[in-house]
Fold this protein.
Amino acid sequence: MTHTTTVEKRVSDGSYEAVFATLDITGLDNANNESFDPAAEFEFDEVLGVSVEGLENPDSYVVQWDHLENALYVEGYGGTDPTAGTAVGQVRVKASGDPSA
């Protein structure tokens, strides 16, 4: 895992909790993806979803969360996959989950 996570804010999302956080990806773990386990990083018993809210380099990359693989997938514009070790920059996410399922 070559990213650091800074939790910006935790808020009530009804009976669940939402966490807004910034991940600074300094080098992709693999070609085109970065391991990201919101259950472990945000202490959720159950993860309901993760959305990407913003990017440091939106003109260079598209980032999406794969809930089956617990990874952020990164694609360059034009359909190219960045190589392992690529610095993607900051990715702002919103993760919703149940801290006590």
